Amino acid sequence: MYLVEKFKPIVKLTLQGTPAWEWAPILLARVSLGLFFAISGYNKLFTEKNREGVLHAVMEAGIPYPEFSAFFLSTVEFVGGSLLTIGALSAVWAVALTIAMVVAIATVEVHTIPKDLAFLNWLDYFLFL
What we know:
single chain; mainly alpha; 6 helices; elongated
């Protein structure tokens, strides 16, 4: 009984958390997503092979003004990811990046899912995107 009482505050803190540490997972999520987008956008902007791949994907999707659209998407990823990483206008860039990814999934990625899948397998592919 003594051991239970001794470790009760530690168990309570572990299970309930403390408001003083709420910032830590938010910071980790913001920085990791920001770095992901910044690196992805950098590679699309400054690597010839990746730049051509984005342009080809945009052209195949039938998005208007493919050169501008590919450049714009890559720039939004790079600038938005960089600013999200440092916390500048985080909400604005999170919305911009969300819109960019929803459009990319709807126009390009959904068509890569095999057609003859059962619903749960299709959903698995979709959620992987």
